[in-house]
Design goal:
The protein is of the alpha+beta class. Helices cover about 25% and strands about 30% of the residues. The protein has 2 domains: about 35 residues; about 110 residues, Protein of unknown function DUF192 (Jelly Rolls, Sandwich). The protein contains 3 helices and 7 strands, in the order H-E-E-H-E-E-E-E-H-E. It has a 7-stranded mixed sheet. Helix 2 links the parallel strand 2 and strand 3.
Length: about 160
């Protein structure tokens, strides 16, 4: 092989190494970017569109809306669990009065209840659920939303 051929082969290897490193570098940068805030998505219940932060990791679910001092009128937090169960919620370190809707795997609301700030009593649904949606206290009642209504991820 000539000197020019070796140089081209060396450059080709170097380019392959760089191309292989780009995805790795992206993976290293993505978690810090995503950790700046939770994913926000629209949800639909009856004729209402709301925007929710999605808590789908154990750490996100444990933190929930703790220490928040405000929550927008049409905003909330959706908790997504790995499997259906009798997932309980309390209000430790939560400053806002909230209402919570527990939903099964189809998104059907099975129970809605209010939760008082700072209380340690555990609120559990009467049936296994896959989702829970926290909104400002009274939001569900004010919008005529009750057990049996369905949450959707698209219109």
């Amino acid at each position: 092989m000539t000197g020019t051929g070796r140089e081209k082969e060396f450059q080709g290897r170097r380019i392959k190494r760089i191309v292989c490193l780009v995805p790795l570098l992206c993976l290293l940068w993505i978690p810090p970017i995503l950790s700046q805030g939770l994913l926000r998505v629209p949800l639909y219940i009856k004729d209402r569109e709301i925007w929710v932060e999605v808590a789908k990791t154990e750490a996100d679910r444990a933190k929930g809306l703790m220490e928040r001092t405000s929550l927008g009128k049409e905003e909330g937090m959706l908790f997504i669990f790995e499997e259906e169960g009798y997932h309980g919620f309390w209000m430790k370190n939560t400053l806002l009065p909230l209402s919570i809707a527990f939903m099964d795997r189809e998104g059907k609301i099975v129970w809605i209840t209010d939760m008082n700030p700072g209380t340690l009593s555990v609120h559990r649904p009467p049936k296994p659920v896959l989702y829970a949606l926290e909104m400002n206290e009274g939001w569900f009642a004010a919008n005529g939303i009750r057990a049996g209504d369905v949450m959707r991820f698209s219109k």
